[in-house]
Amino acid sequence: MEVPLHSHHSNNPFHSDSQDPVYWVTPRHLAGDDGALFEQVGDTLTGLDWRVWPTARDTLLHVSPDGLCGAEWLLASYPFELGGLPVAWQVSARLHASAVMAEWNAYFTAGVPHEALTDFLLALDARMAPNEGFDGPGVVLEELGTRGWFRDADRPHAAAFDPGFSASVSLELLPPLVQDADPRPGLMGWQAWAELGLGDPYLWCASFSASVPHDLVAVFASSLASPGPVPRHTLPAGTEDRLRILRRS
After folding, report:
1. Are 191 and 198 in contact (CB under 8 A)?
2. In whole angstroms, what is the distance from residue 26 CA to residue 229 CA?
3. For a designed S-S bond to 88, which of 82, 95, 110, 177 qualifies (C-beta 3.0 to 4.6 A apart)?
4. How far is it, in rounded angstroms, from Cα 22 to Cα 81?
5. Which of 189, 238, 168, 201 is nearest to 84 (CA)?
6. DSSP string, 129-154
7. Are the CB atoms for 196 and 166 separated by under 8 Å?
8. What does pTM read for this prediction?
């Protein structure tokens, strides 16, 4: 059953209140991170036995048990922006635990649905070789297609949109400061973002460098496009007309 949104503060999930109930909402890509991106990802990594310690840059670095993968909470250091939003998490993988340079990096701003990021990390943790992939880029678009997303008519092999045209996953030239072990210019990497309307500020952005295995990006994309409702206490401002509240508890 769909629960209507109310404008009164005590019943409005778009405002924070300690007494707010949990609202189960769709679509996931517009649901935000519930202000819990740090906690949800950190708890997932702790459950996977990743080690964690603070750095001199006021960040928190998590490292996988084999030392090949890292996930760093960067928000305090404000390293750079994607789509005008500060990067919050950087995930990386190396060939060897002692390697100085990461083979690939993935960056996620605040506001990204934490379910999609934690699913990405769970898939990364389960891999024997985090830098190797055997699927081509089509696996990402195929996964989105099974979730009801549409391919871009002008770029059917490189981009897809959600049915409401408020989110996109596409192969693009790497943004500035996105680092990859491949030094060649003009590299393409998967980019994802959500916005309420064309030209509106981004709700969140994610950027995957060129060497991120496509099947890992497909896991993120599949979770992002999942039709299942997600629990939220608070929701992003301006999404009242785009989100459906299915129930509350």
Report:
1. no
2. 5
3. 110
4. 31
5. 201
6. -TT-----THHHHHHHHHTT-EE-SS
7. yes
8. 0.91
